[in-house]
Structures are given as structure tokens and as C-alpha cells.
Design brief:
Blueprint lengths: L9 E10 L2 E11 L4 E5 L6 H9 L6 E6 L2 E2 L5 H6 L2 E3 L12 H9 L17 H13 L15 H14 L4 E5 L7 H14 L4 E5 L3 H7 L2 E6 L2 E6 L1 H6 L1 H17 L3
Parallel strand pairs: 3-8, 3-9, 6-7, 7-8
Antiparallel strand pairs: 1-2, 1-4, 4-5, 9-10
Amino acid sequence: MTTVENTPALELRDLRKSFGKTDIIRGVNLAVNPGERVAIIGPNGAGKSTLFNLISGRFEPSSGDVMLGGQRINGLKPFEINRLGLSRSFQITNIFPKLSVFENLRCGVLWSLGYKYTFLKFLANLKDANDRAEELMRMIHLERKHDTLAMNLTYAEQRALEIGITIAGGAQVILLDEPTAGMSKSETSRFIELIREVTVGKTLLTVEHDMGVVFGLADRIAVVVYGEVVAFDTPEAVRANPRVQEAYLGSVLADQQAAGH
């Protein structure tokens, strides 16, 4: 994906989505800069997952536009959007459980290296794919699990593997859907650092409920309430925003401040 200077890496223009007579996303405008890390937060039912589904092509907007590097991607299939440079992980881990860590990652790099649907080459002979898979394994700190079946990894390791698969194709815009859900505090802390490492130079959009993750990772935070963005600003400004506190963060931030965070 190539972008013109000053063009947002990802932009939502008056984006709307209705299911029948129910309006879920109600005129969202959002522009994410290249290399920026943005967290989307909001109460359950606010429309966060629907927003991700609209961006990644699982749902088509009722109206409005999704722009990727200045290119309108409305109506494209998820795999077409992926090939334009946007990749997404899900709340539920999506890996190949009966393949090894190395094999999972190698599957993720094949298309981006130009192999596409060819079955005429032995994978073991694809040096560039194998080297890239090895590099990814080191990036996600699973090099010692090279031959371990994905199904036998710990939960945190499986999530790390999914991150590796997500970035394997070289996408410049990464969507992570609740990446630390179900992790312990220590696992979450390590995982934040992993996300920082593997998304250097990339644009990151994440949905996250853990406020420690949000305020520790994001450059800006978009607060979604009832399908609308009620605030989009730096963590400090969002923390101090009375409307945000009233709509969503009040009790969470009060607890954090009382604990000295």
C-alpha cells in the first residue's frame, strides 16, 4: 500500500451501519495517521466490533466510506483489503492448531512473497519464505517453539503467534481486536511490549477493554458510545474529558487514580 504524504493511513468518513431499523454505527468520522497507535474504547454494545468489521470488509457500510491510504475500500472482500495492506486479528484466536509455529508463520508469508496459489514448489525449498518465517518467530519470541504444534502452546503464546500471522504479510495497517483478553497481568505487560515491538513503523488500531493497555499503548484514543465517536484525543485529554468520564470511564479512572496509577 502506498500513501500520498499527509494522507491518513486509515480514514472513516461519515460511516454508518444499520441492521434492519437498528442503527449501530451512526456517522463515524476518524482519521488515523501513518505510524500512529489508536485505541478504540467504549461500553459493551457501543459498536466497536461492528466498526472493525466494517473496516476489514466483513460488513459493508450502509453509507459512508472507508479509506485505506486514500483508496476507497468499500465493498471489497476481506482478502482483497488484506492484499492492499490491512491485516486483522480477532477476539477468538485464529491459528492452524495442527501445524507447527514455523508452519503457521510460513503460511502467512507465502502470498506476500508472490507464491499465491502455486503448488509446484516444495515449501522446504522456498528459502525466502522460510527465512521470513524464522525472522517472525524471533520477533514474537517463539523461536524455541519452532516445531511445537500451535494447539500445544499456552494461551499467551497462541495470541503471540496470531500477532505474528497478522503481520506476516507485511501489512502497514494492523487491527487488533482485544489482543490481551484473558491474559494475566504479567502476560498482559509482556504482550504490550510485544505489540510495541512488532508494530514499529506500522499503523495500529486496537479495540481494548483493559485501561492499563489503552493508556500504556495508544498515541490517541477514540471513545465510541452508541455508535458515535464522542472523543478522539491523546490519553491525557481523554482521561480528563468530563463527557468521556460520564459516558464510560468515570469509575475505571477513579479506581486507577485511587490506586496511584
